[in-house]
Amino acid sequence: MSTLSDTGNKGATHARGPWPFITLRSFVLHGQHIVLKSRERRKGLIRFLQHDDAPAWRQPAYNWWMGLIFACGASLFMLGAALSLVHTSLANWQIGLVFFLGSIPFTTAAFMQNLQAANAPDDAPPKASAAPQPFRVIGWRPGNLGWLSTITQFVGTIAFNFNTLDAIHPLPGWYAQDLTIWLPGIVGSILFMISGYLAFMEISHGYWSYSSRDIDWWIAFSNLLGCIFFLTAGVLAFVPRGPEPGWIADVANIHLFLGATGFLVGAVLMMRESRQVETIDNARKTASQATT
Length: 292
Description:
With 292 residues, this protein is α+β, with helices and mostly antiparallel strands. It is built from 8 helices and 6 strands. Residues 1-10 and 282-292 have low confidence and may be disordered. This is YrhK-like protein.
């Protein structure tokens, strides 16, 4: 979507984003061409020199630690998938415990990310007279694409908490295992898939994009690939009533490993991205490039 509207002393504002969301705004303020992207704004990666005191959840350290926690969760899922593929003296419940321990950092980092989105400023220059926004733990911002992505991911990680916890000591019977293990897992995978694509639309300012020079594109793309592999792994993890070929479990664990690898790459890139903070005065070149 693209709109053009009059904004008074700021001049004309150009807005972009996948309908009905706005993820990019460009305008002229005091003679300077400014581009505000919703992801950069909520993470504090672009700031104004005046009247924009960033709280703790928009500081570089917050983004760095969030990426590290995501990386820990992804690494544990990679380890659990690898242990499931090789012959080892570990019992099934011990391997299941590795997955459960990996789900905890995922949920922690997802909550941190949603907290950041719930309290993100509007994609507009801050005003000196503006009242401070109330603090939100979860928030309700259905018109914000970033918030929708993060809340969907957060709920998905909670589903994986149940999925991995129940898998440590599974109940007997295929029906009980599908209900307590497979069902939460497939629900979490679907929510991850939705979250991953919403995040990709947010950085694309549309339904699809290719921008290999931008780190935020690689973060969203790596996470989207991780979501796809998690979803295919979740589908294959269904427990049938009768016997099934042994290769199905191996393929599911391979896809789980690849999905976790995608999340790990995205998390490491997020840690690197956390140090790329720009003030609005240093954003002129970036702004002009983003709108050409």
